[in-house]
């Protein structure tokens, strides 16, 4: 959590993008609070779904040794495919 809070890229992104959604002539504070609440709710929902899904997948994999093997092989294939793609892109320039 501390690493995420200390990440300057997120703050720079918000400073660069946020003002584009503030309507002139209206209360900047009110609009900022509303937009901040929308962003917070969206992130809470997205990351909540990711965390819940990861927890469910973990529980499923702990009960299934065969599932662990399949998941390991899928991850290995994904990593090898990504490495091959990166090598190919680097080779061809």
Protein described:
With 93 residues, this protein is an all-alpha fold. It has a domain at 28-92. Helix content is 84%, strand content 0%. It contains four helices and no strands. Helix 3 (28-63) packs across helix 4 (65-92). The longest helix has 36 residues, at 28-63. The protein is flat.
Helix-strand pattern, N to C? HHHH
Q: What is the CA–CA distance across the termini?
A: 38 Å
Helix fraction, binned, reads over 70%
Based on CA inertia axes, which overall geometry fits?
flat
Sheet/helix structural class:
mainly alpha
Contiguous helical run count: 4
Quick one: biggest sheet?
none
**Kindly state the mean pLDDT as a whole number?**
90
Q: Round the Cα radius of gyration to an integer and report it.
A: 21 Å
Got a strand count? Answer: 0
Low-confidence stretches: none
Strand percentage lies at: under 5%
Topology:
Blueprint: H1 2-5, H2 8-17, H3 28-63, H4 65-92
Summarize the structure.
This protein is mostly helical and 93 residues long. It has helices at residues 2-5, 8-17, 28-63, 65-92. It has a domain at 28-92.
List keywords for this structure.
93 residues, single chain, mainly alpha, 0% strand, 84% helix, 4 helices
């Amino acid at each position: 959590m501390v690493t995420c809070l200390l990440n300057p890229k997120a703050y720079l992104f918000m400073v660069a993008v946020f003002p584009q959604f503030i309507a002139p002539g209206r209360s900047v504070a009110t609009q900022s609070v509303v937009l901040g609440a929308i962003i917070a709710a969206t992130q809470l929902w997205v990351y909540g779904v990711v965390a819940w899904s990861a927890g469910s997948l973990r529980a499923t994999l702990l009960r299934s040794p065969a599932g662990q093997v399949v998941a390991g092989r899928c991850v290995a294939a994904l990593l090898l495919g990504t490495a091959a793609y990166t090598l190919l892109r680097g080779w061809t320039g």
